[in-house]
Sequence to fold (578 residues):
Amino acid sequence: MGPIQRTSKYDQEVAKKESKFGINYKWIALSNTTLGAMMATIDGSILIISLPAVLSGLGINVLSSGSTDVLLWLLLGYTIASASFVVTIGRLSDMFGRVRLYNLGFLLFAVSSTLLYLSSLFISGMEGAVSLIILRVIQGIGGSFLMANSAAILTDAFPHNERGKALGFNQIAAIGGSLFGLVAGGVLAAIDWHLVFLVSVPVGILGTIWAYLGLREIATIDKDSRFDIPGNIVFALGIIMILLGLTYYVVPAAVTSYSLALIIAGSIMLLAFIYIEAKAQSPMLHLGLFRIRAFAAGNISLLLAGIARGGLQFMMIIWLQGIWLPLHGVNFIDTPLHAAIDMLPLPLGFMLLGPLSGYLSDKYGARVFTTVGMLINAAGFLMLAMLPINFNYEAFAAILFLLGVGQGLFAAPNTTAIMNSVPPERRGVASGMRATFMNVSTMFSIVLFFTILTIGVSQGLPSALYSGLLSENISAPLALNLSHLAPSSALFASLIGFNPMKSLIPPSSFSQLTSAEQATITGNLFFPNLISSAFIHGMRLVMYFGAFISVIAAIASSQRGPRYINESHAHAELSPAH
Fold:
């Protein structure tokens, strides 16, 4: 192969850097950032399915009213911490060095992972849960260092005509890691719940050593800029409030006006952030980046694609765990692991198409692949909407694979287009903003999908519950009382692998039933058959919404502008005259 043709003076400078290991530096950068992105996202999702086993191991009742906050913070504290600080860390990386802060993040991640495992061994009860929450938040901050800098380091290390391929592998690690975390959590929790925290320890230690030995600073450090303290504080508070509000909205017992107040307050803070940044001499986020067409279109389509994708796995898990798997003889307590395995076609499709689309986008640009990918995603949602409640698994798996293909076609080309569109000295904050859009869109998607599903289910569930309970010789007053219980409680119980009917019925009412009635109502068939018609109505509403958002994302992707952005043009777009 001939020498790589560099497309800018910046890339020519990168080409002069030689690796002390005798390996082309770009492959060292790819191996380490891929490892970091994978572990950061695996740990973001690994507790979703393993959480009941973890809380049981700690000796905490997951469905008791006092454990709601513990459940929420263990489940999503990592995501909230990583999403809240990733833009700030991206800006600091532009100022003090991307590799330096990436290495610091890997060290923080490795230390907190080790302490998490030790805490799980030696501290139990509520004290153990609090210890795990604090360490998970610290681990999430370490993960934000990795997410903020991995794409920027790769963009620095690779020339224009190879970035799509490199970022394709990195995106597989990032998004594929979040999907793999579901499977890993289910498998490890079934063996020993402590392993859920052990899995990131050796990888964290290895990654830290490899980062300190192999990575070197290539980018020019922006030493002249000042740190925008007001902007960073206001932005972090706004994101934290919005994510907390969205988080508390997901769990039925926690849904209050407090959730809405947090979301409104967070939105006001972000509006204040925009005003602060417009006046700041050295802003945290150069809002002028959004004047670059490829950057703006890429992030808008990323946000929309995240809304379409983020809640999908939760909807599929509820469908599998609450309906399909029990109908096929799987006990509710065993459904999380089976659901994780049944979801594997989704990451498989993503992993097959991610690197290929990245490689091809280096040759042909991002527009076609991102647009077609989102249209395929829309088609997948519509196909899911046509499935019956008790579907054929082969058809279900094929549709999940198709959705993975669509998401794989979109991810790497879109990331490459975003990172190619900004000047080199802005790549850290651009990468952080991209990661923030991804995290926020995922949480927003979960809330939207769950709300739409609950609305759809609530239209038919009360009457179905009432008639179904009467058919089992339950007294009319008790059946009427139980029929008014929130359907979101049953859906959430099935999401975390608990028997929905046993979770819905108060112990005092449950004890009034005969043993035969108790066995029937809490059996595998009663709840799925009872909720089927109402559930499929709500699920189809969700799928139609997902298809609609995917089409809008495709339209946004088609408006991204030219294939490559000349660096002088990007600087011109950022100038005050524009």
Notes: Residues 228-283 form one domain. The radius of gyration is 24 Å. Residues 125-157 form the longest helix (33 residues). Confidence is low (pLDDT under 50) at residues 1-8, 564-578.
